[in-house]
UniProtKB/TrEMBL annotation:
Organism, scientific name: Corynebacterium ammoniagenes
One Pfam family it belongs to: Meth_synt_2
Protein name per the record: 5-methyltetrahydropteroyltriglutamate--homocysteine S-methyltransferase
SUPFAM superfamilies: UROD/MetE-like (SSF51726)
GO molecular function: 5-methyltetrahydropteroyltriglutamate-homocysteine S-methyltransferase activity; zinc ion binding
Annotated gene: metE
Length: 768
């Protein structure tokens, strides 16, 4: 190493939210994309955000050199790393904004790169596509500038890159290429070595390389293969003479074979995820780390503070774990990008609850307190003790009635009676035609509705006026569907700002934040609700809307619910009970809603579970038990539905091959599922086990393009090769919320015509 080795800081974090406390980056990005600000203004906004962040992190206690990670990215960290090491993009010395945003968002010449979930979080990264001919040209200019910009403000920050093994493990083969991305590891490592040399020349003493690929069971390579790749890559990287010291991180779970490999190659510092959640899944991890990592060669960094939840940590317990590692440093388990900035931005939270939370800034306080110890940080420990105690004792956390009710539920898997075949027979009474047409629930959210919602929130519209606006919208959505000749109608969901937040606001046991934004992807942020305690339903949540819509039509209107798994997947969950406990509670709360809908005369009810795939554990061995409780919670919702009530479910956002048995296990009567983008690929996975009726989406709602009658008829015919006529439904891929009315109307009209054409060819009647 060229530079004088400096020791690793005692306290650090894996990463920090990038969007800014006031969503500054989001606003700058969107203004730039819309052409409202020029490049210079954009870059200066991003620059201010970065330097403000560094200053804040220093104030919060990350005041040693290299304690602050420069994990900044305009759009996504995988994309920026990939550009820096030349895995994607061109080869001009400096990465341009235009180039970066074209890859992320597409332009008139090219479609955007795909986006997918980053491990088991709600963050989505850009999937690099590796072409056979792609030369990996190192382009360190931007990352070097980051270091210099920080230095000019007096900060020695730690540049951040996703490591080469993880970049390739998460990449896909470009179309028309033959090579698997991971086969190119040697070449890519050369490029990292160049980037590291440039950082060393710029005087950087520590660089962070994140290798979370080692904590997951991935389809492209098993654990042992990943470990072998890590060993090969880091043997080379660490052998390079001109480089900063390497801080290698393994967030999002426990490393197995990878831990041995990394201990063996011995980077100067190694981070392990020792959060309570990770230890719960791998109880031996602390011991393995202790016995495997040679701390004479490698500075161990204990990722004790949980970066994935919003709860104040039990500092005393964490400190006890920490003391098992002599001379270790403290960090967070994962980047804090997954939590909001600060609890201080939530003045309206109930005070007792606010004290239980710890967002990014507060978690930094925990890291610092853990490193300092209970003598030097006595106040922080006392505060943590209080939070742990009051939370455990609170009636907000424990509701005896809820506990009694779920305790009385049957154990193990539950089963709706009678079985599907008999229900299908009973549901003939619904009088639906062959190849019934429907939509997934939401209709375009017009600017009028958004304005009404904002006016209502601001107090400029009374509750009555607001409801009146929404009813008008429902009436027009019903009228439109009648006009288009759809068979099963929806009310359009105008009252829902978000399919999870809507229910979280109406259920007891949740709190919602005002400024708790976290980045979902690019400039998109969500504000996940927080499950603080036992969940129950004080009163009906959707019945009035369904009833009103149904009163306007002779056709069936579907009731519309969000399922327990999706509610949990898009919320911050409890850490004091297993997720299955909350899932059961939400399951029975929604079962009451089903009953109320039935009583209101609603005979078709959809329970959306688009996120079923999202919570799938990273390790295969943990998946069956997850799927078991997830499926159970869904089944609880429909358990007591009448045989004549047709239960629908809807799934989207991912490949379903891995969980197709669980989807079948939901035992819904009708399953609608995203399929158009993959041209019905999923139908290959449909087999005898999948008995329900099924509606594979026949048009992609993510694009404003209006699909033709011919192409949708083609997809219906393709589906009929796998699904018999009596079981096939015709619908779009997902809700229409993000679309405009004009395209929606034309697309749905074409969809109904496509169905009519296929039916006419088959000589089946579509009149009910
Ligand atoms: N019913 C919801 C809608 O139509 C489903 C959304 C989803 O699957 N993401 O908007
Ligand atoms: Zn969907």
């Amino acid at each position: 190493m060229t530079n004088q080795p400096t020791s690793f800081p005692k306290a650090t974090i894996e990463g920090y939210p990038r969007v800014g406390p006031q969503r500054e980056l989001k606003k700058a990005l969107e203004a730039f994309w819309a052409g409202k600000i020029d490049q210079e203004t954009f870059e200066s906004a991003a620059h201010s955000l970065r330097v403000d962040t560094y200053a804040r992190l220093k104030d919060l206690g990350l005041n040693e050199d290299y304690a602050i990670p420069a994990d900044v990215a305009y759009y996504d960290q995988v994309l920026e790393t990939s550009l820096t090491v030349g895995a994607v993009g061109g080869d001009a010395a400096e990465v341009s904004l235009e180039e970066e945003f074209a890859l992320a968002r597409g332009n008139s010449e090219r479609a955007p790169l795909e986006m997918t979930k980053w491990f088991d979080t709600n963050y989505h990264y850009i999937v690099p596509e590796i072409a056979d001919g792609q030369k990996f040209v190192a382009r360190p200019q931007r990352i070097v500038k980051l270091v210099e910009e920080a230095r000019a403000q007096g900060h020695a920050v730690r540049p951040y890159l996703v490591g080469p093994v993880t970049v390739l493990a998460l990449s896909k083969q470009a179309e028309g290429s033959n090579g698997q991305p991971l086969e190119r590891l040697d070449e890519l490592v050369e490029s990292y070595i160049h980037v590291l040399a440039a950082l060393a020349d710029a005087g950087v003493a520590w660089v962070q390389l994140a290798e979370p690929a080692t904590v997951a069971d991935l389809a492209v390579a098993d654990d042992t293969q990943i470990a072998a790749h890590l060993e090969a890559a880091y043997t080379k990287i660490l052998a390079a003479e001109n480089r900063p010291q390497v801080y290698l991180t393994t967030p999002y779970g426990s490393a197995r074979a990878g831990l041995d490999a990394l201990a063996k190659v011995a980077p100067e510092a190694l981070h392990v995820d020792l959060s309570v959640g990770t230890q719960a899944l791998d109880s031996d991890y602390v011991n393995r780390v202790k016995n495997t990592v040679d701390t004479a060669k490698t500075q161990l960094v204990a990722g004790l503070v949980d970066g994935r939840n919003v709860w104040a940590g039990n500092l005393r317990a964490l400190r006890e774990t920490f003391e098992q590692f002599d001379g270790a440093s403290v960090s967070t388990s994962v980047s804090l990008q997954h939590v909001p900035h600060t609890v201080e931005a939530e003045p309206n939270l109930p005070v007792d609850v606010a004290a239980w939370f710890s967002f990014a800034n507060e978690k930094i306080g925990e890291v610092v307190a853990l490193a300092a110890g209970p003598l030097d940080a006595a106040e922080a420990y006392a505060r943590a003790d209080r939070a742990v105690r009051t939370r455990a004792e609170s009636t907000r956390t424990h509701n005896q009635q809820v506990a009694d009710r779920t305790a009385a539920l049957p154990k193990g898997q539950v089963q709706r009676e009678p079985a599907f075949a008999e229900r299908q027979e009973a549901q003939k009474a619904l009088g639906l035609p062959a190849l019934p047409t429907t939509t997934i629930g939401s209709f375009p959210q017009t600017s009028d509705i958004r304005k009404a919602r904002a006016d209502h929130r601001a107090g400029n519209l009374t509750d009555e006026q607001y409801v009146e606006e929404l009813r008008k919208e429902v009436a027009s959505v019903i009228e439109l569907q009648e006009r288009l000749g759809l068979d099963v109608l929806v009310h359009g969901e105008p009252e829902r700002n978000d399919m999870v937040q809507y229910f979280a606001e109406l259920l007891d046991g949740f709190v919602v934040t005002e400024n708790g934004w976290v980045q979902s992807y690019g400039s998109r942020c969500t504000r996940p609700p927080i499950v603080v305690g036992d969940v129950s339903r004080p009163k009906a949540m959707t019945v009035e809307w369904a009833k009103y819509a149904q009163s306007l039509s002779q056709k069936h209107v579907k009731g519309m619910l969000t399922g327990p798994v999706t509610i949990l997947a898009w919320s911050f969950v409890r850490d004091d009970v297993h997720q299955s406990v909350s899932a059961d509670q939400i399951g029975v709360a929604l079962a009451d809603e089903v009953k109320d809908l039935e009583e209101a005369g609603i005979e078709i009810i959809q329970i959306d579970e688009p996120a079923l795939r999202e919570l799938l554990p990273l390790r295969e061995e943990d998946r069956p038990s997850y799927l078991d409780w997830a499926v159970r919670s869904f089944r609880l919702v429909s358990l007591d539905a009448a045989p004549t009530t047709q239960i629908h479910t809807h799934l989207c956002y991912s490949e379903f091959g891995q969980i197709i048995d669980a989807v079948a296990g939901l035992d819904a009567d009708v399953t609608s599922i995203e399929a158009a983008r993959s041209r019905m690929e999923l139908l290959q996975d449909i087999d005898e086990k999948f008995h329900s009726e099924i509606g594979p989406g026949i048009y992609d709602i993510h694009s404003p393009r209006i699909p033709s009658v011919a192409e949708m008829a083609e997809l219906i015919r393709a589906a009929l090769k796998h699904v018999p006529l009596e079981r096939l439904w015709v619908n779009p891929d997902c809700g229409l919320k993000t679309r405009g009315y004009e395209e929606t109307e034309q697309s749905l009209r074409n969809m109904v015509l496509a169905r009519d054409e296929v039916a006419a060819n088959l000589k089946v009647s579509v009149n009910a």
